[in-house]
Design goal:
Helices cover 28% and strands 25% of the residues. The protein is α/β, with parallel strands linked by helices. The strands form three sheets. It has an eight-stranded mixed beta sheet with strand order 6-7-8-3-9-10-12-11, with helices on both faces. Strands 2-1-4-5 form a four-stranded antiparallel beta sheet. A two-stranded antiparallel ribbon has the order 13-14. A hairpin with a 4-residue loop joins strand 1 and strand 2. The chain is globular and about 70 Å long.
Length: 337
C-alpha cells in the first residue's frame, strides 16, 4: 500500500474580521473561520459543504492567501506559506488556482479568450514566444472541450457552461497542482452542471489535480468528491470518506442537511428535520458546541466547551459529544453514530 502524501495541511486556521468603529459604539469581531484543521492528499477531491455564511469561501480564500489568516498554519507542498511575503508567495500562486462561482462576472468582458488565457502566462513568465503561447492556449481550450477558434471571441459570445470552461482553462493555464472550485456549477443549468463536473473529473484523472470543491448541492458532492467536510459557523463539524459520509453520518447537523436535500428517487422517504431558530451570528457564537442552540439532541453539557474533532471510525471525524445517536442517512434509513 502506497504511503499517502499530503499536498495541503491546514492547522487551527482562524480568520476574524473587525467591524464597527471605535468612535461609534466600539468594534466587534466576526469569527468567520474559527479553528479549522484538515489535510488533503495529492490528487484528492475534498468537498466542503454547509449553509450560506458557514465560512466555506473564507476558508478557501484564506488558504490561497487572498485573505490574510488571523492565526493558524497553512502548509502547502511541504512549505509553511502562512506568513510569506507577497514576493515569496508568487511561486505558490502558480501552484494554487481558483475557479469562481459566477462565470458571468469572473471573466473580463473587454478581453478575448486569448487575452484571458495569456494574462496568467505572462504574469508567471510562461510561454513567452508567440507561437509557443498560441500552442499552449489551443491545448488549454481543447482540454476543456472548446475549439482553438474560440480564442478570438469575447465572453458575451459564450453560454454559461462555456464561460465556466474558459474559467477552468484560465485556472489551468499555469499548470497548478491544487485547485479551489468555489461552487463552480451553482449558476449553471442542471445539464450543463453534469458536463462541467465530468470535465473536472477528467482533468483530475489526466493531470493528477487536487481539488477543494465547495458546494451546497450534496448530490453533486457525492458524485465528484473522495471525502466530505461539513462546516457550521466557522468550524468543521464532520469529515469523512464520501461513502461513509452518506451511509453513516455522525453529526446532527449532517443529518439535518440530508433531510433538507431534494431526492430524485420517489422511493426514498426522509423525515424532514426543521432546525429551530436561525443560524447564530458569528459576532456572538454560542458557548460550547456552536450547533447546540438548534440541535434536537443537545444536552446541558454541550454548552460547556467546544467539542474537538475526533475520530470515531477510520478516517471519519466528528465534533459532537453524543455517541448514542441513531441518525438519518442519505437514503432515509437510520444508523448508530
Amino acid at each position: 500500500m502506497s504511503k499517502r502524501t499530503d499536498i495541503l495541511t491546514v492547522s487551527d486556521l482562524r480568520k476574524h474580521f473587525s467591524i464597527g468603529s471605535a468612535l461609534f459604539g466600539g468594534r466587534a469581531t466576526v469569527k468567520a473561520v474559527d479553528g479549522v484543521s484538515f489535510s488533503m492528499a495529492r490528487g484528492e477531491v475534498l468537498g466542503l459543504v454547509g449553509e450560506t455564511g458557514s465560512g466555506k469561501s473564507t476558508v478557501a480564500r484564506t488558504i490561497l492567501r487572498l485573505s490574510q489568516p488571523t492565526s493558524g498554519k497553512i502548509v502547502f507542498d511541504g512549505v509553511d506559506i502562512t506568513a510569506l511575503s507577497r514576493s515569496a508567495l508568487k511561486p505558490f500562486r502558480r501552484k494554487m488556482q481558483m475557479v469562481f462561482q459566477d462565470p458571468f462576472s469572473s471573466l473580463n468582458p473587454r478581453m478575448t479568450v486569448d487575452d484571458l488565457l495569456t494574462a496568467p502566462l505572462k504574469i508567471h513568465g510562461l510561454a513567452l514566444g508567440r507561437d509557443e503561447r498560441r500552442k499552449r492556449i489551443a491545448a488549454l481550450l481543447e482540454l476543456v472541450g472548446l475549439s482553438p477558434r474560440h480564442a478570438v471571441r469575447f465572453p458575451h459570445e459564450f453560454s454559461g457552461g462555456q464561460r465556466q470552461r474558459i474559467g477552468i482553462a484560465r485556472a489551468l493555464a499555469v499548470q497548478p497542482d491544487f485547485l479551489v472550485a468555489d461552487e463552480p456549477v451553482s449558476a449553471l443549468d442542471v445539464s450543463i452542471q453534469a458536463q462541467v463536473l465530468k470535465l473536472l473529473l477528467e482533468i483530475r484523472e489526466r493531470i493528477g489535480l487536487s481539488i477543494l470543491f465547495i458546494a451546497h448541492d450534496l448530490a453533486v458532492v457525492g458524485y465528484i468528491c473522495d471525502r466530505v467536510a461539513v462546516m457550521y459557523l466557522g468550524r468543521i463539524v464532520e469529515i469523512a470518506p464520501t461513502a461513509n459520509f452518506f451511509r453513516a453520518p455522525c453529526h446532527p447537523y449532517t443529518e439535518a442537511l440530508f433531510s433538507a436535500a431534494p431526492v430524485a428517487d420517489p422511493k426514498v422517504k426522509r423525515n424532514r428535520i426543521v432546525l429551530s431558530g436561525d443560524i447564530p451570528s458569528p459576532l456572538a457564537p454560542p458557548s460550547g458546541c456552536s450547533f447546540r442552540t438548534r440541535c434536537r439532541y443537545a444536552k446541558p453539557e454541550c454548552a460547556v466547551s467546544a467539542p474537538p474533532l475526533r475520530e470515531v471510525s477510520p478516517g471519519h471525524f466528528k465534533a459532537c459529544i453524543r455517541d448514542d445517536l441513531s441518525l438519518q442517512t442519505w437514503d432515509g434509513e437510520t444508523t448508530s453514530s
